[in-house]
Amino acid sequence: MPKLAKSVAEIGNKLTKPIGDDKILVFNSEIANIPGIVKLTLGEPDFNVPDHVKQAAIKSIEDNKSHYTPQKGIPGLRKAISNYLAKDYDVNYDPETEVIVTIGATEAIYTSLSTIMNHGDKILVPTPAFSIYMDDIELLGGEPVEIDTSKDNFKLTPAKLKEVMAKEPDAKAIIMNYPSNPTGVVYSKDELEALADVIRDQSLYVISDEIYSQLVYGEKHVSFAKVLPEQTILINGLSKSHAMTGYRIGYIAAPKEFIDQASKVHSFTVTCPSNPTQYAAQEALENGLDDPIEMRQTYQKRRDFIVSELNELGYETVTPEGAFYVFPAIPAKFGLTSDQFCRKLATEGKVGVVPGDAFGEAGEGFFRVSYATSMENIQEAMKRLKAFTAKLL
Asked: What residue stretches are annotated with the Aminotransferase class I/classII large domain (predicted)?
């Protein structure tokens, strides 16, 4: 095994060194080897990819679809994305000039930030939020400005947004994620329009990460692009809706002027997505729009069970309206930080959940429970949590 030469050991991007590894994955790895632990940690759907989607990927291989594709993605998939967005969310994008197929929503986020940011720029992030947003901003030399939503049932209010924008007039963008990871909150059309009224005509992009939009349990999802299309960078993908996390297909939809620049970043970073996954995604969007229904119904049953159990045990919970996470508060009388509580629950209670501080400062005092696992695992975890809680009281 080679050891890095001393002559190059100090060479590197200074922005990468202060950034730690993904806190969710690190914590999950640290508790993984605890004997008998039941893990409710990762946001990994426990469903299989629908068979007709798999067959589309196989057929593309058999048909020798093995060469470079257009950098923005194959035309059929871009058209399928455009049709899907128009049909389900009533937002309209030209598949030729306003859509880019990316390597998952993760690349879509990084590409979008890279396109609009310069060194030292600030990006607004309502928290608790998926930690990758803050990490990407810092990796690009920017500064994330966290907006604490924990006192407002985890929703950004127009008043809070006005206050922050007044303090940070030079911010380049705000990242919205709903249904939210980790809280599961959803915004209504009225709530989105109220936020849009604050942002409209200001020098501020909205990067709207709507990857969980097919997992909404109440009113139908409304895209931010519906209320503010001129300033919105819409991000979505197939990972959660069709359990295609490993296929790595996401996309960006935005006005042409933005896409013209973002496509440069995308092409220089990844060249293009793979053929089989693109043909699979096209099949999912053309013939699999009903595929998420069974998954959504199953997730809702799991959600209802977990929320009921948590509330009965005294854990205050904002009922999630989407995604597959619950974000309960740790009772103050326990006297434990998020990390302390979760480590104690893992080692003594044999249940794995994620500390709330992995999602920003506003997540301290909470923990995230993923119900993207079997009801059997969930029932056993709640049984163990009950016994663990009794010992803390």
From this structure: 37-385
Q: Give the pLDDT score at 19.
A: 65
Exposure string over 335-344, b if 16+ CB within 10 A, otherwise e: ebebbebbbe
Structure tokens at 177: 């994620």
Q: Provide the β-strand partners of residue 354.
A: 368
Looking at residue 11, its pLDDT comes to 84
State the pLDDT confidence band at 1, using cuts at 50, 70 and 90: confident
Angstrom distances, CA of residue 253 to CA of 44, 117, 189, 235: 24, 18, 19, 7
Alpha-carbon span 191 to 367, nearest angstrom: 26
Instruction: Give phi and psi for 276, each to the nearest 5.
Output: -55, -40
Place 135 in a pLDDT band, splitting at 50, 70 and 90.
Answer: very high
* Cα dist from 169 to 117, 156, 193, 328, whole Å: 15, 18, 21, 33
Q: Mean pLDDT for the chain?
A: 96
How far is residue 349's CA from residue 360's CA, in Å, rounded to a whole number? 25
**Alpha-helical regions (H) of the chain:** 23-31, 51-62, 75-89, 104-116, 132-139, 158-167, 189-199, 224-227, 256-270, 275-287, 291-312, 338-348, 375-392
